[in-house]
Amino acid sequence: MFDAAEESASWTHARAILGVRVGGSPRKVALVRDAGLAEDAKILSRARAIVAESGGTCVEMPVVPTSDAGQPTALAARIATFDVVVAIGGGAILDLVVIARACQDARTRRTIMSPQRAGLVALPMDAPVRPQIIAVPTTIGTGAESSTVATCIVEGSRRLVLGRSLCPDVAVFDADATAGMPRDVYSSGLVEIMLRLAGPYIAQGTSPAYSARVTLGLASALGELAQQPPSRSVREEVARIGALSHSPHLAYSTQAFGTRGWYVANELATTASVSKMTALIDVTPLIWERILDGDERWGERHRLLEFWRHAVSAPAPDDPVLGFRDWTLGLGAAGLPDVVRERIDPVALADRCLRRWGYGLPMLGALRRDDLVSLFAELRNFAAPRASVAPNLAAVRRALGERLTTKGGEE
């Protein structure tokens, strides 16, 4: 049984929604949860008790997220008669629930599921927002509980779906929900939030001064939290920063599709059958190398240097590329296994990226086929650093230290 004294204040809004009476009748609640959660998990006990206290009727729906394109449509039919869905799980569960809600409308379902080459689709402004969704994330990093973007599988590929109707109505940040999270998942989540803050900031373009200050402040706070043991309070703070990282006020930039590394990593993850973050951890340093070398199609050098200075405290290297690799190694966030890296086909992967994100689509901007082939060829041949060689990075750092003082004169 849960301890009521430990209940997160973020349940207050959820209680208000659950307590609403429509025509005098109690609300019908679907509790859609990750089937992997233990039956006696504290967060399940708390959710069940809160729904019971509201007087609502509750039906539990344990779900295992799959790559089956029909899963959102099937779930849409199951939740159609409910007033509220309490979704408890990681990003895959939360994405599934919001996509299922959208799929209740035939026009919106066609928008999401129809065959097309683009990797991103936008929903109509009047897409359905019923039933209401209370999102309770059990992992940290995706920020799906506060995001207007969700991912689903269509024709064997990840498709990004954009629309304000995809954002859950309430996000609950409860440390009991993340108590059983494996350390590698937590570490990966820290990296994901940091990169989501970094992407729009580094992208070529301009952003309001307030947006820049808030972004750098959140990156600095996250860097400090990453050095602490993941206690209850630390996990809740990290989760809240993750939710804030989705704010359109932070992502504001004159480069609407400036975070090109995410699109590239999305295709790498699909073809390599790994997570998006596993791909991003290896792709990011190679892209940052190109930014530091002056290729502004990927981002602006001075903004990358400024972001990194704020993001990670000493003793991380000042060089963003080496610093990022050291930081992820220290966290235990792993990139691609060597056996997967060696199977990369740079030409085929570049063509896939261009088909889904380029060739007239705006996501890859001015990047060309040769640019992507070069990136993936370097990734295939790159020997991933290991913890056993981490101390030797200091010598490499010294050898490359002149880069920060000879290019652009920012330092």
Keyword list:
globular, Dehydroquinate synthase-like, alpha domain, five-stranded parallel beta sheet, 18 helices, about 400 residues, disordered C terminus
Number of domains: 2
β content, as a range? 5-15%
Q: What about the largest sheet?
A: 5 strands, parallel
- Please work out how many helical segments DSSP would assign: 18
Short description:
48% of the residues lie in helices and 10% in strands. The protein has 411 residues and is an alpha/beta fold. Residues 1-5 and 386-411 have low confidence and may be disordered.
SSE inventory with pairings:
Elements: H1 11-18, E1 28-34, H2 42-54, E2 57-63, H3 71-79, E3 84-89, H4 91-102, H5 106-113, E4 120-122, E5 132-137, E6 149-154, E7 157-162, E8 170-171, H6 183-202, H7 209-226, H8 232-244, H9 248-251, H10 260-272, H11 276-292, H12 301-311, H13 320-331, H14 338-341, H15 346-357, H16 369-381, H17 393-400, H18 403-406
Parallel strand pairs: 1-2, 1-3, 3-5, 4-7, 5-8
Antiparallel strand pairs: 6-7
